[in-house]
């Protein structure tokens, strides 16, 4: 397994699109309704790439061999009073590769990268009750609370989201 910070989606568009479709169509709440089309997924990754190029966003991916099996993003706050924080977004692992610690490793990698960008406060939200909530808690994220009726599911029903944060410490050089 190889985890990489990539600066562009070029060369990875098809695999990123397949990953997003797999996750959404298997029930992940990452901003889309199932069934997700190739076109909509491709447009999404094009927008992500624009954010990468603008320096607003970072994309970390996991490869097993040459297959892209996971991804996570870090949206950097660029406000003058928020340069210490970032939002963790779109933690995704292909359904065929779940339960192997990939999500945990992606989360750890994005935390290390955040520190490299002097980001010591990470925030994220996830649909209330999702399996990812347990992972976030185990990795030291603190639940702030829930917001009702935050998203709609593929059936059009409202669901709440749970907000988490984690404070990171910059290692002191000896």
UniProtKB/TrEMBL annotation:
Specify the domain of life of the species encoding this protein: Bacteria
Q: Which PROSITE patterns match?
A: GNAT
Residue ranges that the Swiss-Prot or TrEMBL entry lists as coiled coil: none
GO-annotated molecular function: acyltransferase activity, transferring groups other than amino-acyl groups
The answer on whether this UniProt entry bears the keyword Acyltransferase reads: yes
Keywords for the protein's UniProt record, in alphabetical order: Acyltransferase, Transferase
Q: Where is the N-acetyltransferase domain?
A: 1-171
Q: Which CDD domains match?
A: NAT_SF
Keyword Acyltransferase: yes or no?
yes
* Protein name as annotated: GNAT family N-acetyltransferase
Gene source species: Providencia stuartii
């Amino acid at each position: 397994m190889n985890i990489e910070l990539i600066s562009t989606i070029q060369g990875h568009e098809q695999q990123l699109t397949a990953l997003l479709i797999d996750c959404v169509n298997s029930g992940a709440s990452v901003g889309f309704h199932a069934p997700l089309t190739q076109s909509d997924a491709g447009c999404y990754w094009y927008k992500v790439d624009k954010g990468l190029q603008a320096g607003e966003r970072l994309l970390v991916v996991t490869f097993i061999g040459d297959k892209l099996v996971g991804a996570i993003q870090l949206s950097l706050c660029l406000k003058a009073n928020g340069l210490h924080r970032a939002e963790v977004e779109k933690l995704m692992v292909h359904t065929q590769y779940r339960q192997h610690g990939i999500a945990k490793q992606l989360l750890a990698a994005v935390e290390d990268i955040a520190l490299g960008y002097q980001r010591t406060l990470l925030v994220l939200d996830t649909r209330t009750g999702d399996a990812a909530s347990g992972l976030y808690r185990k990795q030291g994220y603190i639940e702030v609370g829930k917001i009702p009726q935050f998203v709609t599911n593929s059936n059009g029903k409202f669901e709440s989201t749970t907000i988490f944060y984690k404070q990171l410490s910059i290692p002191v050089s000896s």
